[in-house]
Write a structure and sequence with these properties.
By secondary structure, the protein is α/β, with parallel strands linked by helices. It is built from 22 helices and eight strands. Helices cover about 50% and strands about 10% of the residues. The strands form two sheets. The chain has a five-stranded parallel sheet with strand order 5-6-7-4-8, with helices on both faces. The protein is globular, with a radius of gyration of 26 Å.
Amino acid sequence: MSTTFTSVNNHRAGAQTAAKTAAKLADKPAPRLSSRPARASAVRPAPLSSGWSSVHRHLEGSFPREVMSSWFDNLRLVEESEAQVVLGVPSDFAAIWIEENYLDLIKKQYASFFGHGVDVKLTVVDDSQPASRVSAASSDRLNSNPSASVDSVIPLERALPSQENPRFGSAPRVSAARPKIQLNPRYTFENFIVGNSNQLAHAASVAVAQNLARAYNPLFIYGGSGLGKTHLIQAIAHAALEANPSANVMYLSCEKFTNDYIRAIETKSFTQFRRQYRQADVLLIDDIQFLENKERIQEEFFHTFNELFEGNKQICLTSDRPASEIAKLEARLVSRFQWGMVTDIQAPDLETRIAILRRKAGMLNAKIPDDIVTFLAKSITRNVRRMEGALTRVASYSSLMNGTLSQEKVEQLLQDIFQEEVQTQLTIEKIQQKVTEYYHLRPSDMTSKRRPNAIAFPRQVAMYLCRILTTCSLQEIGESFGGRDHGTVIHACKTVENMMDQEEASKRAVELLQTQLSRRG
């Protein structure tokens, strides 16, 4: 049976583009793109038979609900003809974002609707336009749920609503008041299992917690996802607050720092933003690698870092890679991140994984047979968080069903988790290699511009397999196939699905490749 393809927007790629967009707005207030006419003074209702209705329906099938509500449901049809389409957007920020991320895809869908290329332009519509003039494809939804506007979005876009616009959602101003810190109560030093893979990182974290700003400053911990970085820096936060409940301890992700920076640009509230972060006693930031390629935000964080460091305040950072490997991270930040203690966390060995699972089972008051614990420890090797989630599911099943656990039953119960484990091991390069071997092609055919069917379809199959077997974004997949855009990847996936529905031979070939690539071990 064909696997249904759903397009999703990768947060990481989104955060990178958000910073570039924010920089544009900061450098030049209320920019106007050359391709956009002046602000519209009148907006015509979108006819039900319009091309925009067709384009909107296609977008709904290509993007998750959160992306639709963030960027597409708020577009208004201002003008539409076979030569030109003008779409209204709620703010200059939205115009820049859509033009840089989605305009090419909208143009392609309009070309498909009209049978030829169409000039698509964006214009900022007046706030006074009534809700009834929103495009027909989205008016019913907005009228029935007025809150489903820019405010109803995924975490990254939550920072990007239009400024002081009641119709499209207003951006809350950054407050200088101390925000309530959100910590996982289980992420303490007492609940951390120490092994050879994390011993140094644990010892350094304990030393920092006991001697804030005197032991290692900054503390920089790097390693793969789900290995305990967040656990350790939250444990530091817990210890700091236990020692001094009135301390201004700030724990957040780098993405939230980015969002707050963009919100400060939108609301012209840099004073509050800087006061909020530069008055911290302890600043702990997760996933600092999201600073990559963000020159303006790096500049802001550089000054925040300096002020805290010079004020003898503790800084703790985590990353999925060493600071020197973060793309386009300024050299002065790299050197500062290495001033204190730099330590990594590796995937735990088998004994440590078994100890983690037994501790987790004890916390759940679950009796899990030793052979099942060992099976889980051997099957999920790269992500402690995923391994603990698997154990929780097994324990819940055992408690609710009162059934005897067997390896076969556990494999069936955790099929999706084992698939995720495979995804973390598969790379685009491995999939390309497997597909070229199967179809007897050259590796260069995966990235070439040649389009004979004997090459084009295998290349589309490879894109499809990358989409369903890896966590890579559409942009990352397209770049790995000769610099193609995300619209090409979407088209490739739909083409492969259609071929699998129509031709049994194509279906068998794709399913065989998927099975071979999905084998664990």
